[in-house]
Amino acid sequence: MKASLEEIMSASPVIPVIVIDEISQALPLAEALVAGGLKVLEITLRSDCAMAAIELIAEKVPGAYVGAGTVTTPEQVTDVVKAGACFMVSPGSTEKLLDAAEASPIEILPGVATASEAMRLRERGITRMKFFPAEAAGGVAMLKSLAGPLPDLRFCPTGGITPELAPKYLALANVACVGGSWMVPKDLVAAGDWQAITELAKEASKLAP
């Protein structure tokens, strides 16, 4: 499903950060999350079947905005576009990665942890960023500090975010959404307890400041 990064970041307060270890988990997991109101799915490139999972979900779950996470090379940019991802997320950025992303038909949400990194991205016209690793990089206090000198930037904090912390981040004017994995715990995924995951997704979709 094609969409702008602005639309994607506004679609839900929480973006699930997902590692799919078995391709058989891809469709039921995606369907469970979408049923719970979380339509934006970040499938991280941390497993052998990640690319196949992106392709499958993009084809079979029409209500989902499927993105690729942990994109770190120009080659991966090409691959995730071919797989059908409608956005991509990186933990940081390099000039080669950004060049490849700008030349692609989908947008990238690049990771930053400092003001200097954010300013460099802004010079390239990028104003939507992932703040990572959020808790380790200063959390809510850091984002509050960035809001003054860089008021035009909007962030998706990811890394150490919990259901308890999420509303504190979402209350910030420069936070569009947060990323987290608490609604896809490994034990429930391994057990195939999709209904329990749907319930966790419902709770996450209602999070607000």
How would you portray this structure in words?
The protein is an alpha/beta fold. It has one domain (5-205): Aldolase class I (TIM Barrel, Alpha-Beta Barrel). It is 41% helix and 16% strand. Strand 4 (87-89), helix 5 (95-102) and strand 5 form a beta-alpha-beta unit. Helix 2 runs parallel beside helix 10, helix 3 (50-60) packs parallel to helix 4 (74-83) and helix 4 (74-83) packs parallel to helix 5 (95-102).
**CATH topology title:** TIM Barrel
Number of domains: 1
CATH architecture: Alpha-Beta Barrel
* H-E string: HEHEHEHEHEEHEHEHEHH
Q: Tell me what portion of residues adopts beta-strand conformation.
A: 15-25%
**Large-scale geometry:** globular
Low-confidence stretches: none
Helix content: 40-55%
**Radius of gyration from the CA trace?**
16 Å
Please identify which CATH superfamily we are dealing with.
Aldolase class I
End-to-end Cα distance, whole Å, is 29 Å
Sequence of strands across the biggest β-sheet: 5-4-3-2-1-9
Structure summary, number of beta strands? 9
- What is the number of helical segments per DSSP (H or I, 4+ residues)? 10
Global mean pLDDT: 97
CATH class: Alpha Beta
Structure class: alpha/beta
Question: Could you describe the largest sheet, including whether it forms a barrel?
Answer: 6 strands, parallel
Summarize the structure.
This protein is an alpha/beta fold and 209 residues long.
Essential attributes:
209 residues, alpha/beta, TIM Barrel, 6-stranded parallel beta sheet, 10 helices, 9 strands, globular
Question: Which helices and strands appear, and what pairs or packs with what?
Answer:
Layout: H1 5-10, E1 14-18, H2 26-35, E2 40-44, H3 50-60, E3 65-69, H4 74-83, E4 87-89, H5 95-102, E5 107-109, E6 111-112, H6 115-123, E7 128-131, H7 139-147, E8 154-157, H8 166-170, E9 178-180, H9 186-191, H10 194-205
